[in-house]
Structures are given as C-alpha cells and as structure tokens.
Amino acid sequence: MKVESLPALTDNYMYLIIDDDTKEAAIVDPVQPQKVVETVRKYGVKLTTVLTTHHHWDHAGGNEKLVKLEPGLKVYGGDDRIGALTHRVTHLSTLQVGSLNVKCLSTPCHTSGHICYFVSKPNSSEPPAVFTGDTLFVAGCGKFYEGTADEMYKALLEVLGRLPPDTVGSAPSAARARECTVATNTPSTTSSLPATWSPAMLPSRRNWPGPRSLYRSGQLARRPSLHLLSVSLVSVDQERGHPEWRRSTAPGSPRCRPPSRRSSPTTRS
Fold first, then answer.
1. Residues of the domain holding 253
2. What is the CATH number of the domain that holds 133?
3. DSSP assignment, residue 235?
4. Can you say how many angstroms the Cα of residue 161 is from the centroid of all Cα atoms in its chain?
5. Residue 268: partners with Cβ closer than 8 Å, 6 or more residues away
6. What global pTM score does this model have?
7. Sequential pLDDT tens for the chain (269 residues)
8. Overall number of domains in the chain
C-alpha cells in the first residue's frame, strides 16, 4: 500500500491510496478533483473509489465534479448530505479497494455522519493505516459542530484508541498534518519525507508517547510534526475537564455552536 499526499485548498490534504498488487486506487476527500485526476494518470493506476469522511465542502466539495471526470466511481460516506454519494456506510461497514480491506469507523461529533477509514492489507506484514478526517488532527480534535464532548470522547477512546498496536496515521505535512492518530510533543521537519509514503514510514501505535493532555497537544498542533496525537484515557479525561468542553454540554447551552477558528487550540475545523 502506498499513499500520495495531495495538498488542497489552503490547509487541507487529499490522500490517494494505491494497492500495489492490483493498481487500483481510492481517494480520500477529493476536494480538488482535477489534481486527483492528474495524480492518478501520473501513477498509472485505476481510480475506483471515493472515501468521504464527512459532508463539509472542504472535504466533499469535489465529489460531484470528480464523478463527472471519472464516471463509474463508487462514492462512500456516512451522511446523505455528501455529494454524489452512491454507498451509505455505517459503523464497521467494510469494502475492498483491490486487495486492500477498508473498514468504516463511525466517529460522530464534528459532524453526525463522520466516518474514519481503517485500511489494511490481509496476509501482509505491512502495518494498517487510518484516515480520520476532521475527527483527529496532529495534536488536537475537530470542532463540535454536530456533537458533544462525550461523543468525541467515545470516538477517540473507544474507536480510534482501540485500533491495533501497529496502526499508523495518514500522511504528515510540513504545513499541517491532517487525518492523524499519533503525536509527540517534539516538533520535527518533514522536508526529507517524500510526498508518497508507506505506512511503515510512520510510528506505530505501540510506540506512541505516554499520556498527554489534549489541550496541551492542541497548542503543539500549530507546529509541524512527523508524529500524531496520543490517544489515552488520561489525556481525554483531562481535556473533558477543560472549560471549552464543559461549555459544550452545559444545560441550556448551544451544544453545536462552533467556536471561532482561533478560540481554542484544541479544536480545528
């Protein structure tokens, strides 16, 4: 399995997942479809699948154009608001991309239909990878547009936090790492890392650092890092006690009101 990181918009990333055996490919959140088509042609692979994490325009906004450019694509997602959707998935739904297995993980909170995608290759020593959309960033989590702290807690601890020990996150970036599941408080440069990478190039979950506060990690997310967010019970418990989270579930408060983009270092769009 190889993954091509494709910068999109101002601070987003699309991910082209390539099965080396069959040369079939899937694209995660193709918000800039022309760039996707050009990359598919560059690698000489057959694009068959669109994996949409959630319906927000900066992730799903390119779906309709892409299916016109590449007719016959299967478009997966967990929300009917996703453009060009052909296959509605739920928690633990599975699908194939060539010889790769893709498991859908429901992580509602940022949006009610948010899905993370866990990709693995059967009968292979190659570690699996997970693509977490706007549920989890390099050192922070997504804003609670359609959910609560309890839902984010469950998504991080009971879903992503229980992935196999050798699971790695998706691609790092020198600008902003997206779709990530491991982290350290040591920033690092990515200048020597190629745009195309394999899961073996990133630290596995068994090597994640010890428990850290998500609030503290969110501040570190402003700096580039090769590592991703440490998911631990202690970390999330600490974060749940932070006023930003308590306000989101206080009686009579607007649970889904998004904070301003700079109001909290722990939450990202």
1. 2-268
2. 3.60.15.10
3. H
4. 14
5. 134, 137, 140, 141, 142, 143, 221
6. 0.70
7. 998 888 898 878 899 999 999 999 999 999 999 999 999 999 999 999 999 999 999 999 999 999 999 999 999 999 999 999 999 999 999 999 999 999 999 999 889 999 999 999 999 988 888 888 888 765 567 778 898 777 877 887 778 877 776 776 653 333 333 333 333 222 333 333 344 544 444 444 444 433 333 333 333 333 322 233 333 333 444 444 545 444 444 444 433 333 333 333 334 45
8. 1
